[in-house]
Amino acid sequence: MAPGPNLPQLNGTPLVTDGGMETDLIFHRGLDLPAFAAYPLLAGEHGRAVLTDYYDGYAAIAAEVGAGLLLETPTWRANPDWGVRLGDDADALRRVNEDAVTYLAGLREAYAASPDQELPVVVSGTVGPRGDGYVVGNRTSPDEAASYHRPQLAAFADAGADLATALTLTTVEEAVGVVLAARDVALPVAVSFTLETDGRLPDGHSLREAVLAVDAVAAPDYFLVNCAHPDHVLRGLEPGSWRERILGTRVNASRRSHAELDAAEELDEGDPWALADEQRDLTAALPALTVLGGCCGTDARHVAAMWRRHHAG
To answer: TM spans, by residue (predicted)?
Structure first.
């Protein structure tokens, strides 16, 4: 798929994407994910079967509501700082990231062959933050962030991903670095910020400030917001045309803060239909929204409810 305007989500095509992969795998499927990393599942037949069953649930939702499908690789932790904890060096991570794209391309072929799935299936390489995704941690410059994330993005590009999506970013600098690196390897890229309960990024920027700051230096193809409850996102939506740059949301089921979620021993999955009602208010505030999915605490039930509410208008 060619970069930029040829991405269907940029042309108004609605795309279903998945929910909170890691929380679903841990709490609903009983898997142990060291370092909260799902990518090791690609190494074995059983792990791939679990992942395929996971993605199949979202393909079924897309077919039901007549939307396209955005498949995100299970590589949120497949970067050097996290990979080393699992014993994976740079070569191993390159293979993992390439393999993840190839794996999803195979699922795309299977889904596209189904008469129920008539709209596009897009494969995106998932980039995670260098830190833990909830706190800022050690600040890096955009150039440092670009150098750090470039190998993963290059692996996605080499494997034929349609784009990369950087999820749960906490700082403007890291977002700029991801975009710079993606442009270096000629890969379309989307950037997703996470928000605190007050609607601001963990680095203190308002969402508006962050979007405008990144766009001023290195504009991604579009922005998303993830790992925050719809109420938290709504608190950060200052008026202005900048909202049109946000094409996707992947919300949490829980209203808890990041610190509370980190400390929680049980999953706060809320009520799928209540979340769908709250997402509908958020959708109404984002005129360009085309990508809709979930994050921590959500699964196919939540995403299906959100899409059914969305489909019903």
So the answer is: none
Question: Is 63 annotated in some ligand binding site?
Answer: no
Work out how many domains the chain is built from and give that number: 1
Q: What is the DSSP string of 78-113?
A: -SHHHHGGGT--HHHHHHHHHHHHHHHHHHHHHHHT
Looking at residue 191, its amino acid is V
Q: Can you list the positions of beta strands (E) in 97-221?
A: 121-127, 163-169, 189-193
**Of 135, 118, 133, 199, nearest to 166 (Cα)?**
133
Q: Residue 279 and residue 234: Cα distance in Å, rounded?
A: 10
- Predicted confidence (pLDDT) at residue 238 exceeds the cutoff of 50: yes
Domain that holds residue 257: 4-311
Check pLDDT > 50 for residue 1: no
Sign of CA pseudo-dihedral 205, 214, 90, 79: positive
> How many other CB atoms sit within 10 Å of the CB of residue 310?
18
Q: Using an 8 Å Cβ cutoff, are 165 and 190 in contact? A: yes
To the question of whether residue 56 is assigned a binding role by annotation, the answer is no
All residues at 6 or more sequence positions from 271 whose CB lies less than 8 Å from its CB, including other chains: none
* Predicted pLDDT of residue 178: 98
Q: What is the pLDDT of residue 263?
A: 67
